[in-house]
Design a protein that fits this description.
Elements: E1 3-7, H1 11-22, E2 26-30, H2 36-43, E3 47-48, H3 52-57, E4 61-64, H4 69-76, H5 82-85, E5 91-94, H6 100-112, E6 116-119, E7 122-123, H7 126-130, E8 134-140, H8 142-155, E9 156-161, H9 167-195, H10 200-208, H11 215-224, H12 236-252, H13 260-275, H14 283-292
C-alpha cells in the first residue's frame, strides 16, 4: 500500500481520506482550521504532520483538496511548503479546482525539485467519495499518472488522463461553467413560473419530458419543488469561485466570455446578499427575491 500525505480534509477531502484508509493505505494528514476529519483519520491510524514540508518528506504521494489556487500555492511554496520537502519521484496531486495557469507554473516548479505534479479535479459528491465512485479528471506527466493510477482507481469509478498539465483543470472549469449556467437558468425558470402563475411542478414535468432533461435540472427541482437543497451539495460561494475562474481563464487566453457574465453576476450577487453558504439549487430563492425588487 502507498504512503500518502493528504491536506484539505473538508467534506470531500475527509471522505477521500476515509476511503483511502478503507483500502489500506498509510496516511499522513495536515490540519487546517477544522479538525473534524483530521481527528477521525488519526483515530483510524493516520499520522499528523506539523507542516506541508514534513508531510511531503514522509509521502510517496502528496494530495491536496483545497478551495482555491491561492491556498494550493500557499501550501506548495515557501520554506515549510510541499516543494521544500519533496523526495525524488514524489507525485503531487491537486484534486481541487484551480486556475490552469497556476497549475502549469507549479508543475514546472515540482519537476525542478525532482517530483511530478498532476491536476486531478473531481466530479460527483462526498457521498460518492466514500464508496470510491468519483470522476477524476487527471492531467500531467503520463508516467506519473500511471504510477498514481492504482491509488486513483481506489478513489474513482472513472479516472481520465486528459493530456498535458492544466488540461484537467481546464476541463473542470468548462464543466462547472456549463453546469452552473444550466442550474441558474433552471432556478430562474422556476422563479419566473411563480411570476406567471404557473405551477412549478407542472413546468418541470413538461420540460423534463423533452430533450432539456438533465441531472442538473433534477438537482434544482429537488429544492424548488421538493424543498431538498442537499441533492446538489455545492455552495453558491464555491460556484461563484469556479465560474470566476472560468472567466479569468478566458481572460488569460485573450478572449471575453459572453455566457458566463450573467451566471457570475447572479452567483456573486447572491453571495454578497449573504447566501454564499446556501446550495446552488437555492438560487431559486435569489431569483424570486430579485423579481420582487
Amino acid at each position: 500500500m502507498s504512503k500518502i500525505g493528504f491536506m484539505g480534509l473538508g467534506l470531500m477531502g475527509g471522505a477521500m481520506v476515509g476511503r483511502l484508509q478503507d483500502q489500506g493505505h498509510d496516511l499522513c494528514v495536515l490540519a487546517n482550521r477544522d479538525r473534524t476529519h483530521v481527528d477521525k483519520a488519526i483515530a483510524r491510524g493516520a499520522t499528523e504532520a506539523k507542516t506541508a514540508k514534513e508531510l511531503a518528506e514522509a509521502s510517496e504521494f502528496v494530495m491536496l483538496c483545497m478551495g482555491t489556487s491561492e491556498q494550493v500555492e500557499g501550501r506548495m511554496r515557501g520554506a515549510d511548503g510541499v516543494i521544500a520537502g519533496l523526495q525524488a519521484g514524489t507525485v503531487v496531486i491537486d484534486f481541487g479546482t484551480s486556475l490552469p495557469a497556476s497549475t502549469k507554473a507549479l508543475a514546472e516548479e515540482v519537476a525542478g525539485a525532482g517530483g511530478a505534479y498532476l491536476d486531478a479535479p473531481l466530479g460527483r459528491t462526498p457521498a460518492h467519495a466514500v464508496d470510491g465512485l468519483l470522476n477524476i479528471m487527471c492531467a500531467g506527466d503520463k508516467a506519473a499518472f500511471e504510477k498514481a493510477k492504482p491509488v486513483l482507481d481506489d478513489l474513482g469509478e472513472n479516472v481520465f488522463h486528459l493530456g498535458a498539465s492544466g488540461s484537467g483543470h481546464t476541463i473542470k472549469l468548462l464543466n462547472n461553467f456549463f453546469g452552473m449556467t444550466v442550474a441558474n437558468a433552471m432556478a430562474e425558470a422556476f422563479a419566473m413560473a411563480d411570476i406567471q402563475g404557473v405551477d412549478r411542478k407542472a413546468m418541470y414535468d413538461v420540460m423534463s419530458a423533452g430533450p432539456l432533461h438533465s441531472g442538473m435540472m433534477d438537482f434544482v427541482k429537488g429544492y424548488a419543488v421538493d424543498g431538498d437543497p442537499a441533492q446538489l451539495a455545492f455552495a453558491i460561494k464555491n460556484a461563484a469561485k469556479d465560474v470566476g475562474y472560468y472567466a479569468q481563464m478566458a481572460d488569460d487566453a485573450g478572449v471575453d466570455s459572453i455566457m458566463s457574465r450573467s451566471t457570475l453576476e447572479a452567483l456573486r450577487g447572491a453571495t454578497e446578499d449573504g447566501r454564499g453558504d446556501e446550495m446552488v439549487s437555492q438560487m431559486t430563492d435569489y431569483y424570486v427575491e430579485a423579481f420582487k425588487s
